[in-house]
Amino acid sequence: MEQAVQRRVRVIPATKSMPTVSGPRHSGKQRVAAYCRVSTNSEEQLNSYTAQKNYYTQKIEENPDWEMAGIFADEGLSGTSMKKRAEFNRMIAACKRGRIDMILTKSASRFARNTVDCLKVIRTLKDRGIGIIFEKENINTLTESSEFLITLFSSFSQAESESIGQNIVLGQRQSMKEGVVPFHYDRTLGYRKGADGGPEIDPEEAQTVRLIYSLYLEGHSLGDIQRELIAKEIPTAVGIQGWSRQVIQNILTNEKYIGDGLRQKTYTTGSIGNKKSVKNQGEMAMYYVENNHPAIIPREIFLRVKEEMARRASKRKVMQKTGKTEQGKYSAKYALSELLVCGECGTPYKRCTWARNGKKRIVWRCISRLEFARQYCHDSPTIDEDRLHKAIVAALNQYGAIRDEVKADALALARLAQSHGVDGDDSLLDLRQRLDALSAEQALLLDEILEDMDNAELNARLKAMAEEKQNLLERIEALEQDETQQALQASRQREMEEWLDNQPLCFTEYDDTITRKLIKKITVEDAETILVKIRDVDVVIEQKLC
Questions:
Q1: Which of 3.40.50.1390, 3.40.190.10, 3.30.70.2190, 3.40.50.700 would CATH assign to domain 30-172?
Q2: Residue range 351-375: average pLDDT?
Q3: Which of 73, 372, 447, 450 is 20 to 30 Å from the Cα of 520, by its Cα?
C-alpha cells in the first residue's frame, strides 16, 4: 500500500508594500476637497449653498492633517444627472489628475440621486485610492461595506427624486387644466412683467414684432426680414443683434402674440439620468388658453400669416426632374415669380436674361417651354420685362379708377361676415347653448345607466344623445371655419382699402411690393394680353401689352 503524500503550503514573503486605502499623500497631508449643491435658485437655497461652502472651508482648515484642495459647488441644478454639473465634473477631473485625495460631501443625495452614476464615480475614485466621506450617512467609500450602504442610500435618494418629479409633473398638469400660462420674459420679445405680476406689452419691443408680421405679409422672405432687422440694429429678446430665420419663424408662429397660451408643447421621456424633452405631436393632451394676456397682433393678422406660411410651404415643384429652372422654394426676390403663369399649361413663368450682339435683354418665359420646348406647351410667348411691367401698372391704374365702387362692396361683405351666424337657427350661439344643455343631460343619463346597466331604453337614449352631440360638434366646427374665413377675407379687404387710401390715385412705375400687395395672379393669355386678378376682390382686368 502506497504511503499518502503530505500536502504542504509554503509562504513566499512579499517584497513590496501595498498602497494604503487611505489614499495617496502629498507633503504629509491629505488634500481634501468638498462638494456641495443646491437644487433651486431660490433665496433660501442659495443661503444654504453659502453656508455649506463656509462650513467645509472651516472644517478642512481646522484639521491639521488636511490641506484645502478646493470647494466645488453647483447651484440651481438637479442631482439626477451629472452632465450639466460643471463643478462636479471639474472636481472629478482634478481627482483623475492626482490633485485630490479625499472628498467631503453632506449626503448621498447631495452627491447624486442617480444610483448608477453614483456607484460609477465611487468605483472610479476608489481605484485611485480616493475616498468620499458622506457625513450624514457616516460612510467612507474606502471601507469594505461602503458600496452596499451607498447602494441603499443612493436608491433611496433616487426614489425620492422620482417621487418629487412625479409630484412636480402632477402640479404642472393641474396648473395646465386651470389655465395657468408661464411667461419667460427674457425670451419673449414684446412683453415685460407688469405691476400686477402679469405680462404687459413693451411698446418698443412690440413695434419690432409688428414689423416682422407686416414684412412677412408684404411678401418678404424670412431671410429678407432677418437682413432688415440686422441692418436696423434691432436687438432680439435676449438683447443681442444675432437674428436668425428660426427666431423670426418662432415669433410668427407664437400664439402668445395674440394673447393666447399653449401648454405642453413638449413633454419629458426617459428615466433618471437619461431624460429628454420631446415635441408633443399628439401623444399628450395640450391646453390652449385664450385671451390670457394683452395681444400685440390682431387675431386676423395671425391667421393670415398662418395661411401664408401654409401657402409657401405647399409650393409644389414645377418639374418632376431636378433642374436649374425648377421652382419650389419660396423666393421673395421677384414678385412675378410667384404670380405670373402660362395661360396654356398653367406653369409659372421664369425671369431670364438674353444676351445677343453684346446687348442684354430681360424676358419672362414659361418654365415648361424652357425645360421641354414644345412637348407640353406649344404657344406660350416670351415677354419683355419692360412691356410686362408697363401693362401691370396700367392694370393697377384701371383698378384705381373703380376702387371706390369695389371698396363699397368690400365693406358690405365685411359687415356680412361680422353678422354671420347671429340670426337663424344655425347660429354659433344657439348651437353652443344646445351642446352645453345636451352635455348636462348626458351626465344625468349616465348616472341613471350606472344604476341599471341593462336598461335598453336608457342605452338607446344615450346612443341618440351621443349621435346628436357629434352632429352638433361637426356643425359648430364648420361654422367656426366659415366664420374664420369670412372674417379673414373681410380683414384683408379692409386693410387693402385702407392701404389704397394712402396711395396715389395713379401709379407711374412698377413696384414689386405694390404688385404683391394688390395682385393675386397674372395669366399670360397670348403675346399681347394678360389677365390681372386683384387680390381679395372679385375683379379681373384684361390688359394689353404696350
A1: 3.40.50.1390
A2: 85
A3: 372
